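Table S7 (text form). Paired inputs.
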Amino acid sequence: MKFFESVLSSAAFRVRIALNLKGLAYESAVLDLRAGDHLTPEFARTSPLHTVPALVDGERTLIESMAIIEYLDETHPQPPLLPRDAHGRARVRAIAQLVACDIHPLNNLRVLRWLKHDLGADDAARGRWMHHWIHEGFTALETMLVEGAGFCHGEAPTLADICLVPQVVNAQRYKVDLSPYPRIQRVFDTCMKVPAFDRAHPKNHPAAT
């Protein structure tokens, strides 16, 4: 497998965690998004929206982190990343989608660049934008987690944890106050004790600067 990624991309971080949890070997192709490595016509043939991550598995090319992770879970079932019961799967997907669909897209690089270059938002305004959407999402997510639970759902990492951890790291990077979210912090701390999560952290990436 060849994995097109960026070190700081939250979506790529998710897939790295999944690959690590599954124990899968892959070749990493790191793109520097700030330098525009992803905007070439060549990469568009892999990812039509010029976004990371993308995964090439033999003759198959996959894009979008959630789709890639579920593909990995279906093709390499152990350990499972979704519960066996329908309600559990729905709950895990809801937590994952709250992060992947309602928080992260509003704070990714292309949105922040558009705010700056097209709307003239300065650093302070863009910082307020990021903090607002992270707080709104985390406030809701905090109520969805069980008091005292180690992971988002059950006794092992799931798709929900895979999505939550990179978003917490992103919040830390932008100095968001996480003290109102003790349940989120507890899940994050539990996950970071799992080697698959720790190895996937941007600070531990071989291409980290």
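Next pair, protein 2 of 2.
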Amino acid sequence: MQKIFDLSGRVALITGGGRGIGREIAAMLAEAGASIAISELDAASGEQAVSELTALGVQAMSVQTDVRNPDSVEQAVKATLDKFSKIDILVACAGICVNTPAESTTTEDWLNVMNINLNGVYWSCRAVGRHMLERRSGCIVNIGSMSGSIVNKPQPQAAYNASKAAVIHLTRSLAAEWADRGVRVNSISPGYIGTEMTKRGLSVPEWGKTWLEMTPMGRLGTPKEVAAAVLYLVSDAASFTTGTDLIVDGGYTAW
């Protein structure tokens, strides 16, 4: 049964793979046998992640990437192909959140959220997708959010919510276009996960109390629980799954 989740011989490129959820995804896919390319804006965290993986005997590399810049994304894909000759898996994980009221969100903040959360996902899918379509094989997982399906409270975050809703629908659109050419495209929508960003939000008493009360399981998820969902979607266990948004939220969106 475990063979269906075996990624031996496959190459995974992970944007935002140097920290948080992305780093845990990199570790889990490596544990399943994949070689890993970390695409990360912060070069130091990318290199640290690679050091940890190579110490475990995993083939890994890091390439500094600004997903807001399509040329930077193309260069990251080229560097990965130069080293590994192929990319079987893309996980587009880089993202940010700005918690400001819609009426006072600056143009700069709005565009930065959209450029990282949405445009960065598209640039990554486009660059890697061309390679996958040529090979007629590949699997993409975009990291969305339950915020793409619901409106969080009490914190304001219209830009984030809109960007993640767009990621989910972009995922469906790519899945429909590319399914008959051998490329599967899915998204994962985490709820409140115990990353450093979420933990900072928990320190605001009204926020943390509401988040946990509105999550039926009554706790934060862990990055590893999101990574396990990614492993399913990129493995042969999900060979008939495309265009799906897999919500991992402890039941938050079930109310």
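Strands lie at 11-15, 35-40, 60-64, 89-92, 138-143, 183-190, 245-248.
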